[in-house]
Amino acid sequence: MGGKTAYKNAWITEKLDRINLTTPKGKKEAIDAYRKEHGFSSVNEFINAAIDAAIESGMTKAAPQD
After folding, report:
1. What's the total number of domains in the chain?
2. What is the pLDDT of residues 8-66, one digit of tens each?
């Protein structure tokens, strides 16, 4: 069985990039609830869709509020 794990890990290393995301306590649950309400199958799918939408729209960092 170790061969299957090694193969999967090698495939992941070759095909995917990993980004660690940290959020304040409680925000993970809010993100998960939002993605469920809006039909995303996973938090990962939702985050990738949000990133794609931001890039496509040309989103820039908002100016700080005074």
Report:
1. 1
2. 999 999 999 999 999 999 999 999 999 999 999 999 999 999 999 999 999 998 867 66
Place of tokens 């989103």: 59
pTM: 0.75
Task: Look at residue 29 and tell me if it is in a domain.
Answer: yes
Specify whether the CB–CB gap between 35 and 43 falls below 8 A: yes
One-letter identity of residue 44: N
Query: Between vectors from CA 26 to CA 18 and to CA 56, what angle results, nearest 5°?
Result: 45
What does the H/E/C string look like for the chain? Answer: CHHHHHHHHHHHHHHCCCCCCCCCCCHHHHHHHHHHHCCCCCHHHHHHHHHHHHHHHCCCCCCCCC
Residue 6 lies in a domain: no
